[in-house]
Amino acid sequence: MAEAGGAWRLEAAAGFYRGRGEIARYARAELRFLRWEIDRGVLDERSGSPWWRAVNDRLLRDRAEAALVREDGGEPPSAGARAWAAFLAGPSPERWYRAHNSSVVAGYLENEDLAAAELPAERLMINVTLSRVLYAHAMVAVPRLALGPLAALGPRLGDPRTGSVGMFLDLRNVFPQHYPLDGWSTGRVMDLEGRRARMLDHGVIKPRLRELYAFSARALGEPGLVDLLNGDIPSYARPDIDRSRWHERRLLHGLATLVTAPGR
């Protein structure tokens, strides 16, 4: 049953935001993504993914620690918890991304062994998910890097309180909606992406991956993040991406890059 293991995580995530006034508006993007995970079944305790559960639990733990510290005083025990405490003290889109991504990246780095046990197609999805989350942060924090000449649109498009960020974080219509991905190759998963998703992942994000990971490593205090790229190919848990396939659709890449050339 897909709900097993997902229902309590959804309630815990929603509970952090509930009753906190303006902060409650920041729940939108995260809860939408969490429902996608539940629908796929990756959070199921018996048939789901130990990796997806571990990363989600790191996020829940950091937030719970930040909330306790805010109530009782003291120093948050982890960088993620400290970032969430800073968000609670002065909420803003940039602080939300810094807190959320601090927890998510820590979860990635400390659970790479679990990711390596996933099928190659799942590892590809895990890498694309990371690049999109980092990109959404950049739209708010360094919009020139994320959108080049369209930088003025970044803070609005990336604001987690609005529906527009869904086009970057919603994977419901991009990847297979079940787990595990038995019989799926990384190439087949890449072929499933629609035109808009390919434009985003290969045309907009891919040309700036190295700058994007370098920015996030600095912003989150996680220097190991830059090691999750092999050139301009995501390499977390060795997803076995075919380099020639990753660089396909050159015209599509070029059109998107012309519109949103990387910049600072």
Description:
The protein is an all-alpha fold and 264 residues long. The protein has helices at residues 7-17, 27-40, 50-72, 79-89, 93-110, 112-116, 120-141, 143-147, 154-158, 166-169, 186-192, 195-205, 209-220, 243-246, 250-259, and strands spanning 229-230, 233-234. It has one domain (7-259). The protein contains 15 helices and 2 strands. The longest helix is centred in the N-terminal third of the chain and has 23 residues, at 50-72. 41% of the residues are buried. The model is unreliable at 250-255 (pLDDT under 50).
Most strands sheet: 2 strands, antiparallel
Which strand order does the major sheet show?
1-2
Average pLDDT score? 89
Percent of residues in helices comes to 55-70%
Overall tally of structural domains: 1
Task: From the alpha carbons, calculate the radius of gyration and give it in angstroms.
Answer: 18 Å
Q: Approximately what portion of the residues adopt beta-strand conformation?
A: under 5%
Question: Uncertain spans, ≥5 residues at pLDDT below 50?
Answer: 250-255
H/E series: HHHHHHHHHHHHHEEHH
Question: First CA to last CA: what distance?
Answer: 46 Å
Class by alpha and beta content: mainly alpha
Number of strands: 2
How many helices in DSSP terms?
15
> Oligomer, anyone?
single chain
**Shape designation:** globular
Please give the structural blueprint.
Elements: H1 7-17, H2 27-40, H3 50-72, H4 79-89, H5 93-110, H6 112-116, H7 120-141, H8 143-147, H9 154-158, H10 166-169, H11 186-192, H12 195-205, H13 209-220, E1 229-230, E2 233-234, H14 243-246, H15 250-259
Antiparallel strand pairs: 1-2
